[in-house]
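Worked example

This section walks through a single chain of length 407. The input is the sequence exactly as stored; nothing has been trimmed or padded.
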Amino acid sequence: MPTFRSLDDADVKGKRVLVRVDLNVPMQDGKVTDSTRIEEIVPTIAELAGKGGKVILLSHFDRPKGRDPKYSLRPVAAEVARLVRRPIAFADDCIGPKAEAAVAALKNGDIVCLENTRFHPGEEKNDKEFARKLAALGDIFVNDAFSAAHREHASTTTIVTASKLPAYPGRAMKAELDALERAFEHPEHPVTAIVGGAKVSTKLELLGHLLSKVEILIIGGAMANTFLVAQGKRVGKSLFEGDLVGAAADIMSRARALGREIVLPVDALVARQLATHAPSHVVSVDQVGADEMILDIGPRTIEHIVSVLARSKTLVWNGPFGAFEHEPFDNGTIEVAEAAAELTAAGKLVSFAGGGDTVAALNVASVKERMTHVSTGGGAFLESLEGKTLPGVKVLLIAEPSRAAAG
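Given that input, the structure is written out below as C-alpha cells.
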C-alpha cells in the first residue's frame, strides 16, 4: 500500500509552501468559464494559509510558445482569490528576481501566484536547473494537481527529485489517490467498469488492465461499434476502427477465458446524420441500415445496463455512451448516470467516474454531486485506470525503510 506524508503532520507556519496546482482552466474574454478545477484546490490553499504558511502557487496554463501575455495566469489568479476569499498577489515570473521579490514580501498566511511555468522551456523539458530555481523559492512542496501528475515536468516531478524539499500530496490529490485505491485495491465486489468514447485505440491498455480487475465490462460509445463488427454485425456508416477489429475480438476472447462478463449494445438509436435533433429511430444492432449511424444506445440496452449496475457493488466509469453533446443522443448516458447516482445515494453502489467527456456528461445529467467520487484528472485518471504509477505521484511516495536502507 503506497505511503505518503500527511498534511496533518506538516508544520507550515512561517514556511514557504510551494503548491503545484492545475490552473489550466477554460477561459473566454479574459474570464474563467469553468472553475471546477479551482474549486477542488480551494481547501488545500485555505488550510495552508490558515495555518500561517506562505503559500506560493505554481501552475502551467495552456501551451504557450514562449512568453505570450494571452497565456498569463493573472486573470486566473483573480478567480482563485475570489473562491479562496483571500487576496492573492501575482508575480510576473515563476523564477528569477520578480518571483524572488514576490516570495520575499510574503507574510504568514499570505498567498502569491507565480506566472505560467510554461513560459520557460525548462518546464516541459523537465530541466533540472529550472526545477532547482523553482525549488529554491520554497521550504515545503505540496502537489495538489492530480490532473497534471501524469506529466513528467519540472514543476511536477524534478522539483522534488532535484531538491531536498519534503513533499506532500494536497487534499484534492489525496482524495483522488484514496478513490483509486478504494476502486481497485480494496473494492467491494462485483466491480463493473463502463468504458465509452470514440476510439478503441485510445483505450486498449485500459481495457486490457480492467479485465484483471473487474467482473463486468460495459463497452459503450463509438468504440462499441468496433466490438460489434468483431461479432460479425454490420454498423452502416457508424464510426469504427477496422484495423482494431482483431484487437476487439481478442479482448472478448480473453474476457471469456477469465470468466468476465462483457456487455455490448443490443439495440441502438440511429440516424443518417450527426446533428442535434436529427431524425432518429431505434433498431436492433442486427438491423442497422447501410446509410445509418449508431449514435446512442437503445432502451433495451439501457434497461440491461441498469440491471447490471443494480447487482454491482463498485462502478468505475470512463467515457459516455453516445454523442451526448447532441440531443437526443445524450439519453443513454443520462439514464445510466441517473441510475448510478440513485444506487449510490441509496448506499448500494460505490461509484467512481473520470475523464473530460465523462465529467461533462455527468454535468449534463446533473448527477455529478451524487456520485461517490468524480475525478477532474482527465489523462491522469485514464493512466491511473491503466494501472500506471503517475510520475507526479511517484515522487510523493515515502520510500520503504528497507529500500531506503538498501539504497
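What to look for: Residues 36-50 form the longest helix (15 residues).
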